[in-house]
Recover the amino acids of this structure.
């Protein structure tokens, strides 16, 4: 089944061009929108798998739209596609519930991969941006938090790799354990943290400043 996508951007040429490119690559582009209010309204009506969201919409921001969409549509994930790579913008998007963040300078191949991975439940960031967010929150880890659920060393290692965006099979190869063992660790961690999926798991790692280094550092 093809992945259904909605494209939100206030620049018609860019919006239509992205929608056309995705459709030509096999995605089902079910809707487009030019502002936050219509994005939320249309997303609730068509329930796409992925909303490709710009942040600067000339009024209420894409962050606000992301908050409303992710808060009301369990099956819809938001992938930010923005011209900005600023730390604060990335951070706010993640806090709003975005599953990933891609800058508009990304290639068509990178965009296609990011949409597919977002639909599959992965957390996707343009190279370097995850490090910015993780670096900010890492300072929070210096303050002991007795209320934090206690994870085993292996669960913490798997959590780090999930936050980097690795798939379960890649994690299994990295740690030289079985795919099933990785899934068991992921499910155990989800239960301990009272989370529902890998996107929420990656967001937890970011927001709680776990010692996670992005690939390539």
């Amino acid at each position: 089944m093809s992945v259904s996508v909605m494209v939100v951007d206030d620049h018609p040429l860019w919006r239509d061009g992205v929608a056309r490119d995705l459709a030509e690559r096999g995605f089902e582009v079910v809707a487009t929108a030019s502002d936050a209010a219509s994005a939320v309204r249309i997303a609730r009506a068509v329930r796409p798998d992925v909303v490709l969201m710009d942040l600067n919409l000339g009024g209420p921001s894409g962050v606000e739209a992301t908050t409303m969409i992710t808060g009301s549509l369990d099956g819809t994930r938001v992938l930010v596609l923005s011209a900005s790579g600023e730390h604060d913008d990335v951070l706010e998007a993640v806090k709003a519930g975005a599953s990933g963040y891609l800058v508009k300078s990304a290639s068509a191949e990178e965009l296609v991969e990011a949409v597919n991975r977002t639909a599959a439940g992965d957390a996707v960031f343009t190279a370097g941006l995850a490090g910015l967010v993780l670096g900010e929150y890492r300072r929070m880890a210096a303050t002991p938090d007795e209320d934090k659920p206690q994870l085993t060393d292996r669960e913490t290692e798997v959590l780090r790799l999930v936050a980097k965006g690795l798939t379960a099979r890649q994690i299994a190869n990295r740690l030289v354990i079985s795919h099933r063992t990785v899934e068991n660790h992921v499910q155990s961690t989800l239960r301990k943290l009272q989370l529902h999926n890998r996107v929420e798991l990656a967001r937890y790692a970011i927001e709680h400043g776990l010692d996670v280094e992005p690939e390539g550092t």
Summary: The chain has two domains: 4-130, 153-208. The radius of gyration is 17 Å.
